[in-house]
Amino acid sequence: MRKIAPLITGGAALAALASPALAQNSASATATGSVTIVQALTISNTANLGFGTIVKPTNANPNTITVSATGNSRTITGTGNAVGANSAGVTSASFTVQGEGAQHFSVTANNFNMTSGANTLAVTVANPTGATGLLSGSLGSTGTMVMGFGGSFTLSSSTPSGAYSGNLIVSVAYN
């Protein structure tokens, strides 16, 4: 037994010399945390989309009635003979976006239907989803941007007469 004890003790001493020190196997690094706080976005309607009064075509050909996204102007195109009765009530829709200055945002504005009783006109929105904007001002102040929206629909001699209306819904979100 005496000869085994020195061998075990000597082997343990050699193993201790051969292994590296634990303090040399650790390291550390530092990361920084950050955040930018911004005001909530708001959107408000300042003008509705109005196509005015239209006399429908008397021939079999359709017309497209369009109101521009800016400028409150209406055009009638196509091979039908529709006529704008007057320009009263012709307006682009207008929305004011407000939030943190100098921030980019995206817009969602979907096509919609205008109805008169059971009758429907499908409106294609002129400032479609995917549009973007940049709020005025700088970070730390309130910024605004006014956005215009127009639209168009097809009118034929078979379209029932009536007062049509529907809801254009516009949403915004920070990019």
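Second entry:
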Amino acid sequence: MLHLDALILVYHFAKISDGAILEIGAFVGGATIAAAFGIRDSGQKKKLLTIEPGGSVKHKRLGTRNILRDLERNLARERVADLVTLIKGQSFRPETVSAVHQTLGSEQVGLLVLDADAAKRRDIDCYRDKFADQCWIVIDDYYGADSNAKITPSRADVDELVTAGLLEPLGFYGWSTWVGRWCGNAAE
């Protein structure tokens, strides 16, 4: 779950970016709704794709027995369901990658939000051919409590991409969110 500071950035980037928005790991829709509001307020027609495999989460405050049901309810309640293309599945599965590429067509991604598992590099590699030059990137679970098992592998993936010149860091926001831009098109 993204902190309010990071959600405001997602809203802003969705509003100002050129191209589609791709979110990997919608959970129950906080960032999805922020991006949809940004699209709505931009006055432009932009595609918003979100990938979510579903399941359940046990947590005293954020728990859900059915992630997909709660996500769809939240999108409907906030009146943004018509702005979102929900792709149900794991981000790295060939059928999911194909569905994203097919839905995007020739459009490029102007904003990528990664808030799924710790395999940030894997997800970037699956979709990097669709990133626009200077695509905004928001990556959760980069920094935080040692109890979060996603932190160490997420940070290693992001740091490797920064060192390779593929990502440009802009800062950290909220509890643990890395924000930057894609530089891979220039580096390739």
